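About this split. The held-out portion is used to measure sequence recovery: a designer receives only the structure tokens and must propose an amino acid at every position. Recovery is the fraction of positions where the proposal matches the reference. Here is one held-out target exactly as it appears in the evaluation file.
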């Protein structure tokens, strides 16, 4: 578990990712420099010229899936990622640039890459040999946790950051618009396998037939938090233009009031407006 300076660094890294458009043309992008964290790299395991995701979230900063569709999406292989990351890290060493974080984000859901487990192993190995103090984080919608290779790989990284935006399948269909079979209860069951060693991430918004502040829905979501008991809860709201128009963001104060019962119970909750 991160505490003190480590936790502040993670918050700064993730703040940087969400303050930039999530459409990247390189496998390894950055470093993104910050007064608070120094330097961080991102890894995109998805098509460089489009978007690939099994969610089509109404708030996604990459836009609708249909607008990022490519005829024959080419996904980077484990060898591609290793070569790109090694070159970038070597360049940082040559320039004397520090790297504090290596974060899997990019143009969709990173765990959809079929070589995800092998990629994680290669990235961890390069991190250990070249920048051992850097943390490895993965931003994921948690849909692929049923695949043992994905689950095992996420257990290896410093920060598996896993999403649950709504408490039931009906609301997930509205806000996340998943493709194929999806079950909140199945995701919750898989999250419990982490024994609390993960970060739960949730978007708070209002509009499009969804309202995070609805008392019944909010209480049910907090019950999920209590059930899976993550080491940290990350709640955030809209920051950039969304594909579905008319969505409303919440203020930090509003979100703080919404999650206060969890804070009172001892959960560490990070709130980002």
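Reference sequence for scoring:
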């Amino acid at each position: 578990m991160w505490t003190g300076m480590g936790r502040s660094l993670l918050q700064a890294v993730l703040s940087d990712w969400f303050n930039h458009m999530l459409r990247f043309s390189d496998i390894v992008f950055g470093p993104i420099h910050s007064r608070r964290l120094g330097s961080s790299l991102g890894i995109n395991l998805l098509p460089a010229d489009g978007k690939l995701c099994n969610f089509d979230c109404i708030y996604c900063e990459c836009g609708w899936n249909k607008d990022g569709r490519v005829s024959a999406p080419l996904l980077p292989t484990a060898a591609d990622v290793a070569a790109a990351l090694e070159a970038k890290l070597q360049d940082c060493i040559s320039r004397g640039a520090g790297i504090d974080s290596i974060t899997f984000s990019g143009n969709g859901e990173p765990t959809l890459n079929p070589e995800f487990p092998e990629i994680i192993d290669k990235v961890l190995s390069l991190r250990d040999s070249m920048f051992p103090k850097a943390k490895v984080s993965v931003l994921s919608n948690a849909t692929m946790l049923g695949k043992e290779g994905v689950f095992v790989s996420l257990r290896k990284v410093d920060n598996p950051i896993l999403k649950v935006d709504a408490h039931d399948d009906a609301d997930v269909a509205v806000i996340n618009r998943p493709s194929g079979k999806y079950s909140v209860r199945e995701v919750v069951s898989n999250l419990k396998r982490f024994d609390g060693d993960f970060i739960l991430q949730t978007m708070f918004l209002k509009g499009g037939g969804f309202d995070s502040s609805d008392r019944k829905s909010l209480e049910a979501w907090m019950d999920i938090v209590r059930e899976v008991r993550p080491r940290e809860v990350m709640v955030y709201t809209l920051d950039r233009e969304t594909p579905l128009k008319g969505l409303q963001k919440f203020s930090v104060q509003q979100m703080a009031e919404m999650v206060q019962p969890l804070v009172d119970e001892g959960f560490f909750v990070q709130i980002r407006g």
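Annotator remark: Residues 185 and 251 are 29 Å apart (CA to CA).
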